[in-house]
Write the structure tokens for this entry.
Amino acid sequence: MGVERDSVYYLPEKIVDGAKEWIRAEAMFEGVPETKFRLPEISAVEREKMIPLKYRKDLVIKPFEVKHSVPTMGATLYLHKRKLKDEYLGKTPSEIIELRKNNVEITREVFEPLLSFTGDCLGESLIQNAEIFKSKILITECTFLDDEDEPMSRKKGHTHLQHIIDALKKFDNEIACEKIILTHFSMKYSERHIREALEKNLPEKFKKIIIPFI
């Protein structure tokens, strides 16, 4: 009953072919006739390259590499706009018009980081991608909480709460996030245990901006 809408899926180049095969296989498994099957548009992306979104020209994504048990990437979503260069601030409208008539470039590109999403990753990926802490919203995993689970987090390629705390302490006043959303908690923990662990261990100055997605 859903309405089909045009969309684009941005995937790491390494997994594009496999993703297409999986989507087709899943459709056939669900009984979609070959004549009605339509592969969605998939765009291969490379890390550290700015990519304008097809249906939102004012938005740009920049993938970044994270470490996990399989090849994966996170991404930051930027608002792309142009602002008046500092040297032209205070100019009158007529002066601005005259500058434009003379083909003077009076604006500069600005990329405002709105949201960063790490996906599944080792905690060290937070340190290696410091720019994510400039985003208004950061969504990152926090699979393991307890001290004895730290070795397991490394073995499984996931983030431990202590790794997040280490990153918060390292970047401290450089962190510009309005909200940091923690996801992907292990099923072994109850909601109460999660909230108690965060309350006990998180640095006081960051408690107001950190939200557990439970």
In short: Residues 16-29 form the longest helix (14 residues). Residues 1-44 form one domain. The chain has a mean pLDDT of 94.
